[in-house]
């Protein structure tokens, strides 16, 4: 009888151990599947479109060797830190920051980039000049965050540390004053004019807002803007595809950070 009990207990232990192993393996598989799905979703959002037919007629390598400017737009703690006012976007999970670092370093090394502009984006805009549209629009961005102290708001607008490490004396640092462009109410237009800038390389957030706005403004001002697609991001993951297509078709070439580096080296 004792042998029979022992056999039963052994069988139970084997079953529990086996079940636990299966459960752990299943959980690991599900977790891996979720991670892969998230990675695929992110990768899908950053599919850089084929150059529009008109841009294929250009020598982009030559254009990138003209007197050039690098613009980083809205790449601050507010968007890249879990404590930021815009942390819900989880921009740190997307490729825009490392891609921007890659582009900035390559541009600095190239030698023909005469302007490096780190353009701030304040989500708390109490001191901004505001129309009636602006007032209600800006208030909607910070609904529920009105009690933040001044020092926390200031830190929220600081350039994220990975880019702060790349700033050098003589670089421009300023905040946008208009809704979606650095070309109105700032020192940027005068700086570009005095340095004879022709080409402007744009990175930052948000692709379908400040990036598209600055690309349009640069074109209208006579410059040659180039948007680095994977160094930008929309507010909602997945909307990059349409933004890339729109910018690339109508306003400026959209290329990847890897393509940018290769063109500079060619």
């Amino acid at each position: 009888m004792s042998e029979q009990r022992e056999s039963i207990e052994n069988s139970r232990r084997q079953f529990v151990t086996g079940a636990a192993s299966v459960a752990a393996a299943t959980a690991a598989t599900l977790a891996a599947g979720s991670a892969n799905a998230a990675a695929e979703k992110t990768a899908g959002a950053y599919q850089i479109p084929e150059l529009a037919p008109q841009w294929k007629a250009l020598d982009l390598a030559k254009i990138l060797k003209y007197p050039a400017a690098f613009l980083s737009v809205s790449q601050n703690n507010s968007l890249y830190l879990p404590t930021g006012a815009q942390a819900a976007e989880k921009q740190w999970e997307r490729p825009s920051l490392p891609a921007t670092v890659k582009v900035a370093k390559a541009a600095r090394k190239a030698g023909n980039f005469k302007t490096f502009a780190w353009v701030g984006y304040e989500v708390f805009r109490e001191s901004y000049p505001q129309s009636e549209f602006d007032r209600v629009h800006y208030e909607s961005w910070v609904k529920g965050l009105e009690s933040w102290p001044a020092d926390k708001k200031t830190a929220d607008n600081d350039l994220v540390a990975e880019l702060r490490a790349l700033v050098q004396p003589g670089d421009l640092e300023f905040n946008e004053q208009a809704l979606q462009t650095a070309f109105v109410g700032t020192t940027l237009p005068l700086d570009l004019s005095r340095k004879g800038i022709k080409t402007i390389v744009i990175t930052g957030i948000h692709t379908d807002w400040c990036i598209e706005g600055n690309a349009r403004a640069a074109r209208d001002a006579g410059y040659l803007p180039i948007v680095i697609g994977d160094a930008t991001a929309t507010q909602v993951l997945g909307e990059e595809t349409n933004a890339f297509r729109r910018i690339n078709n109508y306003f400026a070439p959209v290329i990847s950070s890897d393509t940018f580096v290769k063109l500079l080296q060619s």
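The radius of gyration is 24 Å. The chain has twelve helices and six strands.
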